[in-house]
Amino acid sequence: MENIIKKFPEGFLWGGATAANQFEGGYKEGGKGLSTSDVMTGGTHTTPRRITPVLEEGTYYPSHEAIDFYHRYKEDIKLFADMGFKVFRMSIAWTRIFPNGDDAQPSEEGLKFYDDVFTELKKYNIEPLVTISHYEAPYNLTQKYNGWSDRRVVDFYVKYCETIFNRYKDKVKYWLTFNEINCLTMPFGTFMAGAIMPEGNGELSANIKDNPQLRYQALHHQFIASAKAVKLGHQINKDFKIGCMIAYMTSYALTCNPEDVFLAQQKDNLSNFLCSDVQVRGAYPGFAKRYFKENNINIAMEEGDEQILREGCVDFYTFSYYMSVCVSADPNQEKIGGNLSMGLKNPYLKASAWEWQIDPKGLRWTLNNIYNRYQIPLMVVENGLGAADTVEADGSINDDYRIEYLREHIKEMKEAVVDGVDLMGYTPWGCIDLVSAGTGEMKKRYGLIYVDKDNDGKGTLDRSPKKSFYWYKKVIDTNGENLE
Fold this sequence. Notes:
This is Beta-glucosidase. It is a single chain. The protein is an alpha/beta fold. The protein has 14 helices and 14 strands. It is 37% helix and 12% strand. Helix 6 packs parallel to helix 8, helix 8 packs across helix 11 and helix 12 packs parallel to helix 13. The two termini are 28 Å apart.
């Protein structure tokens, strides 16, 4: 029998991922407006972040400075180049381009900043992968329109897209319309993803007061906005590749009880495939229509919406994968935390200090599950281990636990490629330490580059390569062959 060669394809896009609101800083500089992330306070693993309708003096807002990429982008991009990055996933802050979201004209100063960033990336032959909207929107859109619940925001977003597509049409090839768009299928996404002001005390917690009708209407508006952006982008530059981005929530049946098995399938459908079916196939799936009907959710569609969705299908599918959980019809099983949602503890898996279960094999399962459904190119654009790193007396950071996590996931990606999955690239999350979106912490570090800053915003912001930095450089140099 012929030996199976396990290797990544030539031209595989190795790199790292970030988001403007978590690492850019400069929140009042360059004409930037106030974003939804700018009114979110710091928090911890046990203390939820808060939304403050007015900025409170003496309160810490992590996005205001973040790790100051705004002033240090040349230094950071040089470090990415030293690792050998082929691609860098970043987002554009909408409020740098249209400070209020509904402005008549874009900000030239904001546009110029990203011109400079893309020029610096090109200097090192690093391809930008740009998320157009990554968990931040102009706060003015929340105040005036209640965010994405209002159809008018679609036009503001499309105008924003038209502006950046035209400005950067010769500098950016790969675009993602919304980060983790399926976050709006969960109550937690109401403000962070939908820019909708939730009822209650402003705490971003699992107990947030939910309005499913508002959430799913906002999600529909994002689907329309995404589809319009895809069509417009292809008209502006036929070489653009425009993708979706899903927070993939891998869920196993806890037991072989048919109730558990069916529940796992339902969760896969509603949490993951509802959004990607619309964005990849161009129509709402039948299970979504049934769910809406049974839960008294009435999506207000305008004439022509179905055609807009059909004509705005994405070119490739990207997703975040950190962990897996179990599901069961038995309400008494042990719960465990996770990315955007809770699940049940899997007795066969270890978990991180933040209770995220570590499941490399689940990434291979997920890649196959997605590719078998859609047969379009895939990309893992977030994956990583959040941990509290220790700086040794000599300045070194020996994050062997992170290396092990990444190594085992890369091995499973390679297996998926051999399975036949068309995998474009890999950008682990937080290639440089940045603010955690969920908790607002710095302590929960994902980076291959250490940034001297703590949960209270104190520190020099000095950058230091971790042990994982040098390991990942070797991985990229060998196109994933040397993982030791």
